[in-house]
Model the fold of this input.
Amino acid sequence: MTEAESTSFETVLDKFDHYFKPHTSVIYERARLNQRTQQQGETVEQFLSSIHELAENCGYTGTHKAEQIRDKIVAGILNYR
Done:
């Protein structure tokens, strides 16, 4: 970090975040999403919440993200009648 960068609180905070936050593996996060199915006794709301949370780290954006979530719900829900 340069001396000029060290005078900005935001820049210092960004540098710390970049250094200390673990980097996510998109491949690993997508595998977690793809393997997720609704568990016995889990409500639909809990399952949907989990799917949306898992999709956040997958690198999907916009329509593609919505389609991936939709497909995972269709493929992973226990009772789809």
About this structure: Helices lie at 9-20, 26-35, 44-55, 62-76.
